[in-house]
Amino acid sequence: MQRSQLDCINIKTKTMKALTVLGLILLACPSLRSENFADELSSLSTEQLQQRVKHYNELIESSEKLAEALELEFNEIQESINFDNSAAEFESMRKLSKEYREMKANSRAFEESSKLYRDELLRIEPLLCLDDHQVNGYAYGICGGDSTAGPGWTVIQRRIDDTLHFNQSFQNYHFGFGNSNSNFFIGLQKIYELTNFKPHELYIRLKSITGETKYARYSCFKIQSQHQDFRLSALGDYVGNAGDALGKSLYKQFKIYSKGDNDPSTTSGWWIGNGYEGVESNLNALPSQWNTWPVSLINVEMLIRPRLAMLDSDKYKYSC
Length: 320
Hints:
Number of helices: 6
Keywords: Coiled coil
Structural class: alpha+beta
Helix content: 25-40%
CATH superfamily of the largest domain: Gamma Fibrinogen, chain A, domain 1
Distance between the termini: 45 Å
InterPro entries: Fibrinogen-like_C, Fibrinogen_a/b/g_C_1, Fibrinogen_a/b/g_C_dom, Fibrinogen_C-term_domain
CATH topology of the largest domain: Gamma Fibrinogen, Chain A, domain 1
Largest sheet: 8 strands, antiparallel
Coiled coil: 46-113
Protein name: Fibrinogen-like protein 1
Domain Fibrinogen C-terminal: 104-308
């Protein structure tokens, strides 16, 4: 038997084993369309909901790893195929490709299950820090949410008064400063780790001196590493009523800058260009800036939340 024929047989065997495992997992999953599912969901305790969320997240990870392994094996055997192979072997490759796509599609069922349990958990405990707020088991920042943003957010920046100036060194912006219960900045390194660990969206909440509140929400928030100057690499789509002031900071590096006078309050860090593009949205300035809503701001917050993009409404579908 030729080597290519043996490779086809080996990959098909591995594929069938992987699909069998996935099939058994799918059979064990509760039906999302079951009439009793809503009753089951409401009857679960917080601890049980947390276990379900963790369980489905593990299944998502496992199915993705299986899909990656299939793709790797498919590519390896594809390189060994030549036009002397029989039609049956090409048909085998076609089936492998189809099975890979089906496996990727099936993993979406796990994500849907995870989201249903996660949403119910956050409905009960809106400020609960879930596993997806963490990197390597370590929780960053504090969790929060409100009636407009919904639950499940991690606060990465907050200014509620002027007791802490944000005219800090780059090192402080790198690692974070302040008190998480009051004014603080979580740190660029932590933001990088969180937004590169999995896709996140960004929610910015602004409050004026008159008590009016507005928000800006971005579907895909991501920054690059220290070696790339913590550049703002993605924002996704904007929705909100505060205006898209942050859009001018896209692809800009994070810099400590000064207006050039001797007032230390004019020095702060933000994502800006060489011509100071992006300063118009600097929430770390004194006072905080958001030029698409030019009012005096007394309270600002930046929050991020992990996303399941494929399950969101059309306006939030994106590639992050």
